[in-house]
Amino acid sequence: MNRKFFSSPAILLLPSILAIGFVIIIPLIFSFYTSFTSYKLTRPDSLFNFVGFRNYERLIDNAKFWAAFGRTILFLAVVLNLELLFGLGIALLINKITWGQRTLRTIMMFPMMFSPILVGFQWKYIFNDNIGLLNNFLYLFGYESAIPWLIDKYLAMGSIMVAEIWANTSIFAILLLAGLLGIPRDPIEAARVDGCNSWQVFKNITLPFLMPFIFIALTIRSLDVGRAYDIVHIMTGGGPAMRTELLWTMIARIGYKDANMGFANAMSYVSIILSIAFTYYFFTKLVAARRELGQQ
Amino acid sequence: MANVELKNLTKKYGDVVAVQNMNLKIPHNEFLVLVGPSGCGKSTTLRMIAGLEEITGGEIFIGNQLVNEKDPKDRNVSMVFQNYALYPHMTVEENLGFSLKIAKVEKKEIEQRVKEAVQILGLEELQKRKPSQLSGGQRQRVAMGRAIVRRPDAFLFDEPLSNLDAKLRTQMRTEIKKLHQNLKTTVIYVTHDQVEAMTLADRIIIMKDGYIEQIGSPIEVFNKPVNVFVATFIGSPPMNIIECDIIKKDNNLFIQVDKNTTFLCPKEKINSLENLKKVLIGIRAEDIVPLDNAITSNNANWTFEKIIDLAEPLGTETQLFFKLSNKEIISRMYNPRPVNIGENIIFQIAINKVHFFNYETEKTI
To answer: Which of residues 49-78 of A touch B (CB under 8 A)?
Structure first.
């Protein structure tokens, strides 16, 4: 037993086991534990105040939480779909260009070079109802009543989506462009000789080849968008009247502002299910798409 | 079912000429092979006929219709690619029926035609498989099936056998030939392999640097090459080309191969060689025959003796290598006997089998 434990494979693996333990496993167990306590950040002694499933029970009855949950799903659905659509469009256009492709690819990546917080600030000032660029621009065209972009309950959500899409569409564009560049020329030419017009070539050949890349992009972005916090926090702070509250802005508010960490952690664990569900779904799709192409 | 005609067809990439003023009439049902070294413009020509490559100048007619401006899909030609170009996400069946589905042919009709193609090519067992589950030869068969089901005006083959191993290549070659005999359609076939060209073609076009060097039946281009390039390109091993001086002595014309070897110029060539100083002669390996198994001919033969540098027994024949005028010469010994390196052998050349080429222009005299 002893000899086995100190065998060389175990010793060689020890650093990584320790690293993973300290970085992931211990915090994971700790936070999971706190979700069963009434832990308040301001009262460290409450850490040992075990309450069983009470946090989770409160959660299930909490309409605001489920509203944020639903809003996050809506946010994910709209943002991912539009980013996919625009990203695909941009990738297809850039793929057609023969001159200046590299320059355009670089320019396309500019939005990714800014911190999401700065992107949030910038769009906040674009959408500001009094001094915002957008309303001023509309004013020039004779539209005189100021539109409350970040205050109206529907417009505010839409405005955040616009900012998010602006900042991250290029991730889709880049990944899909990589996919497009990797498509062999022969099947496309064969399809053209076989009688396909451009749309049919795209639908029947290009798109199936792109599917794995689309699902990789969707997986990455679903995790990214699912944890959206910064841009919302900066632009609306979850307002007006919590109408742009997403899961993580709500969790952060309850955890840090209300110092109600135990409850916040319980929310986090439920929220993670959402991310896992999206990732799992896209990943199965990815595997299926690859199998379809005979790549696995 | 159509003839194909090219008029002054030209393709340029910037300043680089890929195909120059090509004129060609391909009658219905002909098996035409475009052959040449890589970069000679043969594939470009084929791709222009398919519509995959834009034309710089000239005209292409398929079935007497000008197709210059037509998309590939409207030309009703089928193409078989070197890398098969199957659709990886479709089964064999779906690959075969794809073009018909796009053309909105009735389902029953599609099934019928796919079934026919499957039977012709022996793909019955593989219908439900994906291309990734097929071997190279099977993939090539599916690619051909995909071309057949469309019943096109012309088949275009772009080096279809290059990715197969030697044995499979020979087998598929025969199948393509049979297929053509059954289907009776115009075939334009591109290859760099002269054996494929010889065995398949009704007519061969030999291309070099964008120009047509010679057009003719396989036997024609083999027996009467118009220049040194065609002579050395067609036939395996390539024709021996030897640089010779022309010498006048005692009213006779001699061809001097090297110091020790001089031949009497054949009578019918005297007029054309008289005023030249140098000439290239070309002799195929099978026409340089060791004396002891020489085929007797009525012509006066050239005879000389050489030391053998190397002998390669191939079973049915042995290839003998020796030096003539500092050039390595290959001879074929039929009914071979063991040959020792360094052995002296007397060779005979039938004069009527010798090709004469102009030293400067390399054209046949």
So the answer is: none
Question: What's the whole-model pTM score?
Answer: 0.81
pLDDT, tens digit (0-9, with 9 covering 90-100), for B185-219: 899 999 999 899 999 999 999 999 999 999 999 99
**Mutate which: B54, B70, B102, vs A, most A CBs within 10 A:** B102
For the stretch A262-271, pLDDT in tens is 999 999 999 8
What is the end-to-end Cα distance of chain A in Å, rounded? 40
Question: What was the ipTM of the complex prediction?
Answer: 0.83
Residue carrying structure tokens 């044995």: B167
Question: pLDDT tens digit string along A211-261?
Answer: 999 999 999 999 888 888 888 888 888 777 788 888 898 999 888 888 888
- Decide whether B4-233 matches B240-358 in CATH topology: no
Whether B61 has a pLDDT exceeding 90, the answer reads: yes
Contact: B89, A294; criterion CB under 8 Å: yes
CA dist list (Å): A55 to A29, A32, A40, A45 = 16, 12, 12, 18
Backbone angles phi, psi at A77, to 5 degrees: -65, -50
| Residues A101 and A90: beta-carbon distance below 8 Å | no
Q: Compare all CA atoms of chain A with the CA of B94 and give the residue at the minimum distance.
A: A204
Min Cα separation B82/chain A (Å) = 9
List the single residue in B73, B88, B133 with the smallest CB-CB distance to A195: B73
* C-alpha pair distances (Å), A280 with each of A10, A69, A172, A176, A193: 31, 18, 19, 21, 39
Domains for chain A: give ranges and CATH numbers.
1-30 (no CATH), 68-292 (1.10.3720.10)
